[in-house]
Specification:
Structural class of chain A: alpha+beta
Distance between the termini of chain A: 38 Å
CATH topology of the largest domain in chain A: Arc Repressor Mutant, subunit A
CATH superfamily of the largest domain in chain A: Winged helix-like DNA-binding domain superfamily/Winged helix DNA-binding domain
Oligomer: homodimer
Bound molecules: manganese (II) ion, zinc ion
DNA sequence: TCCCTTATTAGTAATCGTTACGATTATTAT
DNA sequence: ATAATAATCGTAACGATTACTAATAAGGGA
């Protein structure tokens, strides 16, 4: 009896491995480029499909920063992110501090602003 | 002498008025629908173009929540937002508190999670 | 007021990140 | 090994947003 509706494929395994090692929060296209050497016939759609499956499995998380591409993160623990408005790179902020001044003291990046978004169920839907 | 490179149009004025009154954080499409009565020949492209201009002028702000559409907010003061995972509505959170427990005490929505994104210039770009 | 410059518009095509489809291939249970 | 059916690749489609173009209109100056 198969508890898991998913099968194991080299492609999906490699995508997960890349995300577990790579801390740069790569996009689907970044991952596709990295895998092209090992999988010359890889389809970009395969990368997207497997990223969605891995998110559904709770093994990775998707990050959106309002930019054109979505970014993916192999670290599913709760942590904040820092985005450079110049080079657009996405960095981890180890600090869980809430005061922006205190967060600034824990990193060499120059923090200019912070956006907080809360998610849940609204009173109308409850 | 005209200091402003922009001219005044009924369309842009109406878009701004809607955003100043409407606290529901409407999408471009929402605004388009509301204006169709008064401007039957309105083009959706006109809405998008003027929203970008108003953002550039600092009169409104664009909000992205990883969903399909961007949302727009006539309130440019710093404030947090709450998104219902069920109905996808976007609400204001008046509270500036950082502790999620304290924020929960100020609203009737059921808060499940919070995402913080910091923006600035990274140490490599400095 | 009229004229002129040009920002703005409506309509439509294009862009582009992502998803869906369909025939073939690969995984896995029996 | 066989059968059932995920997964793959290649390609088409999707959808929110942007770009293009000819016509329109705002608004400054004569
Ligand atoms: Mn991260
Ligand atoms: Mn708001
Ligand atoms: Zn940078
Ligand atoms: Zn709701």
């Amino acid at each position: 009896m198969n508890e898991n509706k998913y099968r194991n494929t080299k492609q999906r395994e490699q995508i997960l491995n890349i995300l577990l090692k790579d801390k740069s929060h790569p996009t689907a296209s970044d991952i596709y480029d990295k895998m092209k050497v090992q999988f010359p016939d890889l389809s970009l759609g395969t990368v997207y499909r497997n990223l969605n499956i891995l998110v559904e499995q709770g093994k990775i998380q998707k990050l959106d920063f309002g930019s054109t591409y979505d970014h993916y993160d192999g670290n599913c623990c709760y942590h904040s992110h820092f985005v450079c408005r110049q080079c657009k790179k996405v960095y981890d902020l180890g600090c869980i501090e809430d005061d922006i001044e205190k967060v600034q003291q824990t990193t060499n990046h120059k923090i200019e602003s912070c956006l907080k978004k809360y998610y849940g169920v609204c009173e109308n839907c409850l």
